[in-house]
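Structure first, sequence second, as always.
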């Protein structure tokens, strides 16, 4: 990887090595204060169609909860997407109950936007959820496996793509189609993992994980957002909550107005002090604050 990309961006170092891509931090040569993440894909590793879909989504459907695309630079054998730089993803992060709630809320907004435009992300997992702990900004990334009805010419919906622990039962079932509700299931798995530190369907063999997903039985999460897990990890796709329902049920907690007129945040009833690493032991099980 050249240190200078397109004569415009200076590469500073590697952020991550994903499944198909390497992601570097970079700044503009003419303005070192402007920092970017450069996702570089070796074209031999990914079919051209996947790259086109990813670029088309980011170019034509910008949204506050999708990572922003600034530029696409192609040099022989490599294509680089110049993206806004986020501090990192939520994989293995310690999250407070408020942060868990906010992350689910923001991801659901991003997914809802995609779903309304006929797009299924198909790879919702912690590595693909970017998060700025300081500002609370949450953005989805990695549209390399996304399916868009408008673009689809080569790949069908009827073969399995994604990361096995996060696959929905209808995707695991051979010949079945991925649906927008399949992203809702994956979000349920992510939420479960944030609450307990482990995915709900786990085994060292992929085929056993798939069997468990098809059965749909998981150890319930008591307290915190456990109630929301139960609305997303539902075997029948049409009975799963949509992203609109998730967004409305996870609105930021209402602010309590004090007698003096000053407002202060309401006590967080999501009494799950757990982290991504420490399983939730909370007893409280609040109902969603529906709007
Ligand atoms: N804009 C970004 N800012 C910061 N980190 C990023 C950004 N985009 C991706 N990453 C990091 O790079 C990893 C791999 O990028 P991703 O787009 O998911 O590629 P892959 O298809 O290889 O999984 C992500 O899991 C995330 O940790
Ligand atoms: Mg990824």
């Amino acid at each position: 990887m050249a240190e200078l990309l397109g004569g415009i961006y200076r590469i500073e170092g590697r952020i991550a090595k994903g499944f198909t891509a390497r992601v570097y931090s970079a700044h503009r040569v003419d303005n070192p204060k402007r920092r970017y993440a450069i996702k570089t894909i070796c074209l031999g590793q990914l079919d051209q169609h996947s790259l086109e879909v990813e670029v088309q989504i980011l170019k034509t459907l910008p949204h506050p909860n999708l990572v922003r695309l600034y530029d696409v630079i192609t040099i022989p054998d490599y294509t680089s997407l110049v993206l806004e730089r986020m501090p990192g993803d939520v994989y293995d992060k310690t999250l407070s109950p408020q942060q868990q709630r906010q992350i689910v809320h923001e991801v659901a907004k991003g997914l809802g936007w995609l779903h309304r435009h006929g797009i299924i992300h198909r790879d919702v997992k912690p590595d693909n959820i970017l998060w700025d702990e300081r500002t609370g900004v949450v953005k989805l990334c990695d549209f390399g496996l996304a399916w868009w009805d408008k673009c689809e010419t080569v790949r069908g919906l009827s073969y399995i793509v994604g990361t096995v622990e996060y696959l929905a039962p209808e995707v695991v079932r051979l010949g079945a189609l991925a649906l927008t509700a399949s992203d809702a299931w994956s979000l349920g798995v992510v939420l479960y993992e944030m609450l307990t530190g482990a995915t709900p369907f786990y085994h060292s063999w992929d085929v056993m994980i798939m069997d468990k997903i098809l059965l749909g039985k998981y150890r319930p999460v008591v307290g915190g957002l456990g109630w929301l897990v139960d609305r997303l990890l539902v075997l029948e796709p049409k009975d799963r909550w949509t992203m609109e329902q998730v967004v409305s049920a996870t609105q930021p907690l209402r602010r309590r107005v004090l007698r003096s007129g000053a407002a202060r945040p309401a006590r967080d009833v999501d009494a799950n002090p757990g982290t991504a690493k420490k399983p939730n032991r909370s007893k409280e099980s609040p109902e969603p604050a529906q709007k």
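Margin note: Residues 256-291 have pLDDT under 50 and may be disordered.
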